[in-house]
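Fill in residues.
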């Protein structure tokens, strides 16, 4: 997580030991546990915690953990499988754009309130900026907005003109299978009430996913 000095500063002023905080945040993001499960597990270890305390830890530390992880993340391949899945926030469906490479390494993700050309472009730009290089091949589902977004980005130079763009359900089985690990974790949560909090929590789940894959 970084140099010892920086680590100490990150947890300054907390009432609980940093190892307890990291453990609770990691277990919540990685395993199919709700907050009250974690409260009970900590109580068995002699620690009295409120479930809201753990939720605050998740919201506070997940962005920091994600930022530090990027220093050690492996480079991904340049053949991307791109797809969207659904997440319900405050009773409304939102869209989680995700991509993996041909070796099933997570390329990137982005939560969006809409599923349209603008949302697809925003996802592609985020993925390219995060990895400092564009894909050579993009395999998309049959949704027209994603194809249009890629075409328009090639036209304006955001994507190289020779980027291969294709649609293949067989090849996209890879990303559809990869959705499961994230969706199964989200399913046992009690639902998201705010978009920002959902985005933070999902970022943490996405962080644990490639770590679990090695």
């Amino acid at each position: 997580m970084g140099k010892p000095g920086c680590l100490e500063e990150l947890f300054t002023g907390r009432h609980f030991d940093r190892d307890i905080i990291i453990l609770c945040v990691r277990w919540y993001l990685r395993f199919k546990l709700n907050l009250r499960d974690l409260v009970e597990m900590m109580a068995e270890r002699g620690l009295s915690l409120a479930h809201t305390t753990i939720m605050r830890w998740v919201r506070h530390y997940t962005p920091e953990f994600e930022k530090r992880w990027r220093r050690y993340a492996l480079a991904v391949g340049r053949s991307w499988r791109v797809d969207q899945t659904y997440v319900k926030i405050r009773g409304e469906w939102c869209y989680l754009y995700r991509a993996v490479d041909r070796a099933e390494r997570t390329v990137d993700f982005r939560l969006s309130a809409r599923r349209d050309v603008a949302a697809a472009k925003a996802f592609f730009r985020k993925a390219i900026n995060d990895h400092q290089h564009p894909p050579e091949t993009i395999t998309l589902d049959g949704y027209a907005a994603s194809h249009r977004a890629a075409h328009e980005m090639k036209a304006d130079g955001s994507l190289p003109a020779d980027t291969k763009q294709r649609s293949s359900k067989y090849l996209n089985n890879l990303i559809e299978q990869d959705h499961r690990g994230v969706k199964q974790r989200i399913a046992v949560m009690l639902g998201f009430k705010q978009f920002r909090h959902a985005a933070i929590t999902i970022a943490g789940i996405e962080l644990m996913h490639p770590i679990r894959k090695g």
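Residues 4-69 form one domain.
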